[in-house]
Design goal:
12 strands, 193 residues, mainly beta, 8-stranded antiparallel β-barrel, 1 helix, elongated
Length: 193
Amino acid sequence: MKNVFVFLVIFGSFTALSQENKVTFGVKAGLNYGDNGKIEGTDIIDLSAEDRVGYHLGVFLRGKLADNVYLKPELQYTVNNSTYTLAGVDLDYNIKKLDLPILLGISVLGPIHVFGGPALQYIVENDLENVRLGDVKNEFTVGLQFGAGIQLERFNLDLRYERGLSKNRAESGEGIRVDSRPNQLILSIGVDL
């Protein structure tokens, strides 16, 4: 719970900047395509997931730092789904998390911009079908996101790549370990309010 509080304090600190009218507030939603890592175990040799589609919903702040430079923290609820086939049986692996990307962006040509930065993640729930998993080793992890987008009036469309930086495993009593790091493409649409 302490980590959720840290998320809210970081995100909330950016709202103080909005008093100067240099900050835009908005909502966003989109799709995630990728996997949650690999299954490992005594009888398993690095079983990779079949890619699946997930989704995210959230809010963002975009603060103008200079003419073409901005800082954009986001707070979003993300659901990632992957399927593993183990001994002819499909196992669905679902992760629900809070994400806080803190992105630095640059407008490069008209409405086109590029961005990147760290993505803080708090894993709320992880579940591997028919396997009792323990909690992930670290509920709070760090990843990296980078991508490009287009800003048209109040609407923003972006495509980004996210990768978890450090291994973060959940284990079962049967010796099965699942690496919960995200490795995904994220397509988002946002609206400035």
